[in-house]
What we know:
By secondary structure, this protein is α/β, with parallel strands linked by helices. The chain has helices spanning about 30-50, 60-70, 85-100, 115-125, 160-170, 180, 190-195, 200-210, 210-220, and strands at about 5-10, 50-60, 75, 105, 130-135, 140-145, 175. It has one domain: Alpha-Beta Complex (Spore Coat Polysaccharide Biosynthesis Protein SpsA, Chain A), CATH 3.90.550.10.
Amino acid sequence: MTPAPIFALVPVRALTDAKRRLSLLLDAGERAALARAMLEDVIECLSRAPSVEGISVVTDDADAARVASDFGALALPDAPEGGLNASLEAAAAWARGSHAERALLVLPADVPGAMPDDIAELAAENAHVVLAPARDGGTNALRLRPGAKIPFAFGPGSCVRHAANTRAAGLSVAVVERPGLALDLDRPEDVALYLARAGTSRTLGFLHRLGVARRLREKAAP
């Protein structure tokens, strides 16, 4: 079966309010700049993936919406109530109405290690629902075949919930473990693991310019 083209949803909270769990490592301005760099890396990855034929950033943040526009992506508003999952439900409903023939992919904006090959792997799976788990049990990517629907359940431990929701709906599920999709930058230890990786990206460049590796060493010193 030829994989269906993908419409990608990239949820992101206000850049100036992002990554509070990194507050012992980065100040507020640095966290906002990190969030922007990660968002740019994720959108660029999707833009380079041949299977992706549309991208929308799901946000009410004006700065994030401008990043989306700079990359030729759409910006869809958050739902008035219900948080991330309600916002994704609304965005997915819009995408299904406008692009019913496309698969849906949810890729959060804080997975800067994602690469086009990772997206190709998700697209190639034949299951109704494809999940890429985070190191902490969350869901760092979720792909739905055209016509497949499950309730979104993003948050701690969500990969198990998404798999359970899929089976409850009578749909098939596949779990794809990819190093580029396993790491979202939430905690200092995540940043340390990301810095240990080879490669280039806006996020890596930003962290290196700040000297974050040195800050991590200093915080770890007795």
